[in-house]
Amino acid sequence: MLTPNLNVNEEGHLCIGGADCCDLVQQYGTPLYVMDENMIRENCRSYRDVIDQEYEGRGLICYASKAFSCKEMYRIVQSEGLGADVVSGGELYTALAAGMDASKLVFHGNSKTPHELLYAVQAGVGRIVVDHLYELDRLNQIAKAQGVKVNVMLRIKPGIDAHTHDFVQTGKIDSKFGFALETGEAMEAVHRAIQLHHVHLCGLHCHIGSQIFETEPFAEAARVMIRFMDAVRDQMGVALEELNLGGGPGIKYTMEDDPLPFADIIRAILCALSEACEELRFPKPFILFEPGRSIVGGAGLTLYSVMGRKTIPNVRTYVLVDGGMCDNPRYALYQSKYEAICANRADRPANETVTIGGKCCESGDLIGEDLHLQHVEPDDIIAVLATGAYNYSMASNYNRNPRPAVVMIKDGESRIAIERESYADLILNDR
Ligand code: LLP
Q1: Ligand 1 atom index nearest CA of 389
Q2: Is 388 a pocket residue for ligand 1 (Cβ < 6 Å)?
Q3: Is the pLDDT of residue 23 over 80?
Q4: Among 228, 393, 367, which residue's Cα sits nearest to residue 306?
Q5: Are residues 131 and 251 in the same domain?
Q6: Which phi and psi angles does 45 have, rounded to 5°?
Q7: pTM of the model
Q8: Distance in Å, CA 249 to ligand 1 centroid
Q9: Residue 242 · residue 288 · CB < 8 Å
Q10: 317: how many CB neighbours lie within 10 A of its CB?
Q11: Does 333 contact ligand 1 (Cβ within 6 A)?
Q12: Does residue 277 have an active-site annotation?
């Protein structure tokens, strides 16, 4: 099985976290997102434990909620002692509605609106990550008008080329995010930030990309950032106290993927960072990480009902399901590969090669091509695995398909985390 929380019971049904997927379908219908709370919690703890063991607890893990955001998710991460990274007024609103401690929130975005900045300042968000100079000045003015001084970090492009899909790489010089090191822009931003009276530059941030399997790009980013912090100290006499190294550890989507445990990646980063600090006699900064995918990705799956099948001789067999790019746009966007299993016949051999087609009016609406699957017929249930990250959060109402429900499993028991949208929800804002 792809992840340790999956198994097949004696009825031949796929189970996640001790819950029978066929029972879940009976109770909640399809399409259905299912998330395993125990696995999410274990992942949160492994991240926290590395910081405790390898870095004297001098850090904060801020779950990147863009991977999967809802009130229940913020409650879970908060109860595990994590903070969260939010990237819009909407994520901030959800986090606050769930009772998140605002001081443990990091607010991101390369194009925050004045309204979002004011909202973050008024809410007392712990750290605002500034992406460009206009934003820095705007934030300073907003903080001044509010009579406060806000903690900011500057987003730096460390110039690291991580091996991942182009769209999810963010640390290279040609990226819309942050200040480049090579051009002097980053140093200029630091200079500007420390002159302003209503922002406190507490540290720097970088994020090199997502779904990264190698350790070295992360370690190199840590070294580059420490060297830059050292240069800032030399040129400006300020030793910045915090470093946020973003997210990015990759997960196992298919049996071919062989990612390192993310705790090992963090350990290696902390090691590289400590060495760089020692070499330069730079005080070890308070550290932040923002993992998203590696906390929730493997903890989720999506259940679909099969509506039909079409075999085009000598071409391919399509299996058609009741969801598609509206609940999982990742194949259409990035050709991301997934594994699928027939949830009600999971004990049978996967002896067919099929393409799973969605229900949207678009030829590219596929969940995957040439997947190995048990023979399926209409009304069978297909589970697409490892859909916990960037599936619900990137879902849309394309073709006015209501978004599916999200069910959380804890010790074999299920509960609704997000209700299925109704047709009435779809016209709620229509006039
Ligand atoms: N921090 C920042 C500033 C980020 O931009 C991201 C992801 C993360 C943390 C979390 O990265 P993670 O640990 O999840 O890799 N929609 C794409 C992924 C986009 C990631 C954007 N930023 C996908 O479905 O693969």
Answers
A1: 24
A2: no
A3: yes
A4: 367
A5: yes
A6: -65, -40
A7: 0.97
A8: 9
A9: yes
A10: 17
A11: no
A12: no
